[in-house]
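Example 3.2
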Amino acid sequence: MVEGLERYTEIIEGRAVAKFQIARRIPVDDRPKDLDGMLRLHSRLKVEFKRNLNSVDILKEKPAEFSFLHLKIEILKEMLKNCNFCERRCGVNRYERLGFCRCGVKSYYSSEFLHTGEEPELIPSHTIFFNRCTFACVFCQNYMIVHSDDYVVDPKNLAKRIDVRFRQGSRNVNFVGGNPDQHAHTILEILSHVESNIPVVWNSNMYHSTELAEIIEDVVDVWLGDFKYGNDVCAEKYSNVKNYWKIVTRNFLRAKDNGELLIRHLVMPNHLECCTEPVIEWVSENLGRDVRFNLMFQYYPAFRAFEYPEIARCLTAEEMRKALKIAERYGLTNLVFGPFHKV
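Structure, written as tokens:
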């Protein structure tokens, strides 16, 4: 059992219930039509959800015809009319036009498969790569996914694929991209049709709004969060996002209280002092030295990175050694790093 991912392990072993399966079994009798009414009801049902969080017997109950999970889907569909899923808060009516993320109501995905290249505790991971993103990273390594629309999501069909992959040995369903946040309404609809008791991994840039967190935190078992930057200047320069540090640290703290954490930090050339060290220091002091932390050395210049000379190369062995020393200095004890395990 990996430290910090105890409940995740219990779900895999059948000793706990995935959050979305609990949400499917909390019935909703009153169905307000307006968003304010739905949100008030949602707040009341959250209390019941938390009471059942440690119940294994709830899985013996049949899913409700209209459940807490269905209410969440309805709320998210209403939120799309003035979209605030992420902290860009572009306010677009996604039923009429695309937001900054270039998403409307329909969701698209590029692939789904059993991934064996993730962290050891996740593999094999059933990864579903959604198109589009709320960031605009100049070094994006998935730019073909981010800048195209491949296959329209059919929620029932993807739910069946999740159940099939579970029988094939997947340890989780891992919603990634791109980024999953802008597809939250679709992802929860997919989950409303899934029969397997499988942990949900939300592989996110952690730039989501508090309004979205309030809805999705009751279905996310593991927050697989990117912690890219140690300051707002780098975040705006390379990903075109404002107020990064305040938003992402807020969301990591909330995620800690509403699930389990696996943090990824991609070490970038020439960014150890401005990004890697502040990230590791903050994580150590605020999320705990025992939080699962992936110090990633997989950076390579992709997409438009060559327009920025300071990041237009791979890491040196010396930079990798320095990053490991920083992690050691701040006492991170639950570390995974790669692809090189000896530098």
